[in-house]
Specification:
Arc Repressor Mutant, subunit A, Beta Polymerase, domain 2, 2 domains
Length: 189
């Protein structure tokens, strides 16, 4: 694996591909969304491409970057990026770090935060949207302890339809609390 992954900008840029592993993104689009200099974005994208992490296709004068699924280490790289996203999330919501840990402990399977918290757009009135692929013990005591409504949605891995609107939204906007590798494998194709 490359030293590039230690670079915060590279992780930030690669995180843009976590909403859809088949996504093609124009460099200027990334620079605008992340509010970084276009030249910086271009340099990082070019280095990621040279390292075989990303590939690109040219459409007109534009370069569209996408994940290099032929790279044997790409799933490991995505795990690092998804974990970095989780770390950023828990840093933002430090007062609820123990709540996330409790959810992780009580669940068997994959635990994902979605909705306004995953968008980093929550307010005091926001409930915590939690998607569990598997099982989870009761969470009512956590709602009382942390004074937050937990909207728990449960399903099984074999019932996941990636064309379902709800599942598409979770894939697009998620923070994986538990089961990073399983989630990546589940939505890979």
């Amino acid at each position: 694996m490359s030293n590039m992954l230690l670079n915060d900008k590279a992780i930030e840029i690669l995180a843009e591909f976590c909403s859809d592993y088949n996504k093609k993104i124009y460099g200027r689009q990334i620079a605008g969304k992340l509010k970084i200099n276009q030249k910086t974005a271009s340099n990082v994208l070019n280095r990621l491409e040279k390292e075989g992490i990303l590939k690109y296709s040219t459409e007109g004068k534009n370069k569209y970057y996408f994940i290099n699924k032929l790279n044997s280490q790409i799933k490991d790289i995505l795990k690092i990026v998804e974990i970095a996203r989780k770390n950023k999330f828990t840093q933002k919501y430090t007062r609820m770090k123990d709540l996330f840990y409790e959810l992780e402990k009580r669940a068997k399977g994959i635990v994902i935060i979605f909705g306004s918290y995953a968008n980093f757009a929550s307010s005091k009135e926001s409930d915590l949207d939690v998607f569990v692929l598997g099982s989870i013990k009761e969470v009512n005591d956590l709602e009382d302890l942390y004074k937050i409504k937990i909207n728990l949605v449960k399903s099984n891995k074999d019932k996941i339809d990636k064309e379902d609107i709800f599942i598409k939204e979770i894939i697009k906007n998620h923070i994986i609390i538990k089961g990073v590798e399983e989630f990546i494998d589940l939505i890979w194709l």
